[in-house]
Amino acid sequence: MNTIEYLIKKLEDFGITDYFGVPGDYNSNILDAIVNNQNSRWIGCTNELNAGYAADGYARQKGFGALVTSFGVGELSAINAIAGSYAENVPVINIVGVPSAEILNGKQIYHHNFQEPNRFAFVDAYKTVTETTAFLNKDNAKMEIDRVLRAFERERKPVYIAIPEDIAISEFSFKDVDYNWLSDTGNLEIVTNLITEKIHNSQKPVIIGDVLIKRYDAKNEFSEFVRKSGIPVTNFLMGANIINMDTENYLGTYLSKYGNPQAKEYLDGTDCLIAVGVIYGDKNSFGTPVPHKINSDIAIYGTYTYVEGKKYENIKMSDILHEISKKINHKKYGNDKFSGGYNPSCTQKEKLNSNYIYSRLQEFFKGDDIIFAESGTVSDGFAPMKLPENCEFHNQLLWSSSGWATPASFGASIANPKTRTVLVTGDCAHQMSAMEIGSMCRYGIKPVIIVINNSGYQTEKDFSDEFNKEYTGRSDIEFAKFARAFKADVWSTKVATDDDFDKALRVTQIMDKLCYIEAIVDKSDSPDFSNQMSTQDKSQDKPPVSSAKIKQKDKNISKRNVSDSKNYATNIHTSLKEYEGE
Question: pTM of this prediction?
Answer without folding.
Answer: 0.91
